[in-house]
Amino acid sequence: MSQNPPNLRPDLAPKPVFDTPARPGQPRIGMVSLGCPKALVDSERILTRLRAEGYAISPDYDGADAVIVNTCGFLDSAKAESLEAIGEALAANGRVIVTGCLGAEPEYITGAHPSVMAVTGPHQYEQVLDAVHVAVPPSPDPFVDLLPATGVKLTPRHYSYLKISEGCNHKCRFCIIPDMRGRLVSRPAHAVMREAEKLVEAGVRELLVISQDTSAYGVDIKHAASSGRDGREHRAHITDLARDLGSLGAWVRLHYVYPYPHVRDLIPLMAEGLVLPYLDIPFQHAHPETLKRMARPAAAAKTLDEIVAWRAVCPEITLRSTFIVGYPGETEEEFQTLLDWMDEAQLDRVGCFQYENVEGARSNALPDHVPDEVKQDRWERFMEKAQAISEAKLAAKIGTRQEVLVDSVDDEGATCRTKADAPEIDGNLFIDEGFEGLAPGDLVTVEVDEASEYDLWGRVV
């Protein structure tokens, strides 16, 4: 599971983007945001609504009148982390409201922590606000409580996650997201564009498009078109949306792109420079029988053909994916097929997880569960191969020039990302000389002069 970095925890967090100090008597709310970027967007929306109602944002437990814990419930390990975070907030503050994916199982939470003040499910914004109103009544002052144009953000000013839909229509046996977050519900295209425009106008340099299934955007509303504030029509289809977002002048990065055939229509937009040449596609495995047991399309060979076609249109494309090893019934032959597939596919960025049961998942009932020691061995072998591929690909970039986005600058250097690197999950490019004039959000050109397994070093040119 990909966890939020520690500085998103309120006991360690920097000041929020909206950092006006609380006025005397102003109620203050803290936030713990766990899980994926989609949950982070939910946290930002909740805090923005609260800020508009006159609440201040507390960067620590002690200063908060109540704390909201936005939980993750995708894996049992994530549930354990969420319960631990709830317990920590209770111990440090005592007044805790729980929301998020694990909130879909309120008895699970109250069984471990009966003293929580309220439990609400995922993307139930109104219920969260109601719970806060009961715990800490609002006290707004419209002449003082001003809201920033972008709302309250938990990410740096120069990039932002842009959620385009909720839920998922797939029925993968190992996944309980449809049970927690429901079926696909797409946002109207004009609403997505309006949010993106406001973010770019406020200085955001990179838009990270997220959902449970980005490729399926608009399917539920039959790809309906809707008009924006400028009178232009925007169609709710991922290809049209990517093109429209690309017109705003910011980097546009696509995450969680399910490998439907129409994904090939996105690649020319990358070749044209409208969106970043970066695809985050959850392949999960390569052996057709394993994919069948996962209830996913069993077309790994055709996927290799698609990858070849994508690279023919856009040679600089970066492909990122995640895989599961040790899935029930996975034989050594099936695992070896995955390793061989990796040799063929040569993916740039790879994450791998050992299978674990999740309460409510249909895969729990499958026969022939793989022993933990075998799962660990396969994970290590997979990551060894993935690391070797990454090391070779990054070594090939030495001597090239790359446009990079500066994320942070300290006394030792600047931490940046190339177009091939998403925040928190991919590598970095470090500049340790001639960085003094750089600031977060700058776009600069560097020449790469060093590489490791996952990161690059370079100098400004």
Automatic annotation (TrEMBL):
Residue intervals of the TRAM domain: 395-461
Alphabetical list of InterPro entries matching this protein: Elp3/MiaA/NifB-like_rSAM (IPR006638), Methylthiotransferase (IPR005839), Methylthiotransferase_N (IPR013848), Methylthiotransferase_N_sf (IPR038135), NA-bd_OB-fold (IPR012340), Ribosomal_uS12_MeSTrfase_RimO (IPR005840), rSAM (IPR007197), rSAM_horseshoe (IPR023404)
Catalytic activity: L-aspartate(89)-[ribosomal protein uS12]-hydrogen + (sulfur carrier)-SH + AH2 + 2 S-adenosyl-L-methionine = 3-methylsulfanyl-L-aspartate(89)-[ribosomal protein uS12]-hydrogen + (sulfur carrier)-H + 5'-deoxyadenosine + L-methionine + A + S-adenosyl-L-homocysteine + 2 H(+)
Domain of life (superkingdom): Bacteria
Broad class of enzyme this protein falls into: transferase
MTTase N-terminal domain sequence ranges: 27-137
Cofactor(s) in the UniProt record: [4Fe-4S] cluster
Compartments where located: Cytoplasm
Subcellular location, principal: cytoplasm
Binding of [4Fe-4S] cluster 1, residues: 36, 72, 101
UniProt protein name: Ribosomal protein uS12 methylthiotransferase RimO
Biological classification of the source: Bacteria, Pseudomonadati, Pseudomonadota, Alphaproteobacteria, Rhodobacterales
